[in-house]
Write a structure and sequence with these properties.
single chain; 2 helices; 0% strand; transmembrane; membrane
């Protein structure tokens, strides 16, 4: 049942895997970092309004 992600987990017996999904939490962290990078890149591209005088 839990042996599907032993190779990608990097831990003995799949200790780094989530029980229900079979995925490693490292992928969720990497996806979050990628979304953060995309968000900051978009914020740099969008022109900002001039300060009100």
């Amino acid at each position: 049942m839990y042996d599907k992600c032993v190779v990608g987990a990097g831990g003995a017996g799949g200790a780094g895997c989530l029980a229900q999904t079979g995925t490693s939490p490292v992928w969720a962290i990497l996806a979050g970092f990628a979304l953060l990078a995309i968000g900051t890149a978009i914020m740099r591209i969008i022109p900002r309004r001039a300060a009100a005088r």
